[in-house]
Amino acid sequence: xxxxxxxxxxxxxxxxxxxxxxxxxxxxxxxxxxxxxxxxxxxxxxxxxxxxxxxxxxxxxxxxxxxxxxxxxxxxxxxxxxxxxxxxxxxxxxxxxxxxxxxxxxxxxxxxxxxxxxxxxxxxxxxxxxxxxxxxxxxxxxxxxxxxxxxxxxxxxxxxxxxxxxxxxxxxxxxxxxxxxxxxxxxxxxxxxxxxxxxxxxxxxxxx
Length: 208
Fold this sequence. Notes:
Layout: E1 4-10, H1 32-44, E2 45-46, E3 52-55, H2 59-68, E4 75-76, H3 93-96, H4 100-106, H5 120-141, E5 145-150, H6 152-162, E6 163-164, E7 179-184, H7 186-192, E8 195-201, E9 203-204
Parallel strand pairs: 1-5, 3-4, 3-5, 6-8
Antiparallel strand pairs: 1-7, 2-9, 7-8
Helix pairs in contact: 5-6
């Protein structure tokens, strides 16, 4: 039976001044360092080939897609955006530590959401729905390999829900420009809605 392969890649670095802050739907571009790092990774490692590239609409993801897959015309999907942190956007944990809702949110209470933002439950529902649509679309079109360029929170959430081996979201953490490959077996997918996480990407280029 035909299996399908999906490669998740986290977008490249953004400005150092934004690191450590909650940057969700704020549409910041790649930093110059982020661009250079991606170019270096592309020369040092091997990013997987693909028949189709899906990307979040945010600049840092679209720019990553164009750098790593310049000959592809990426399909932009709004549902692949990072979580909307509402009034917590652009703030650090230190700035939010006196907010009781923030503490409850950090503790994993999925019904809690940032003011004017998105709850963990709503975020998970959104990204799971689009991922299932992507998988079903691959099966219908006979495209057997795809790349999804998106955000760390999206990837960690999806792998914690669908990935085998089972692991919590934080156990799927990855650096910018890196990610994971999953293999979807149609029979297993239809029965259990799971997929095998089988490698980290990009992989080592033995010629270097």
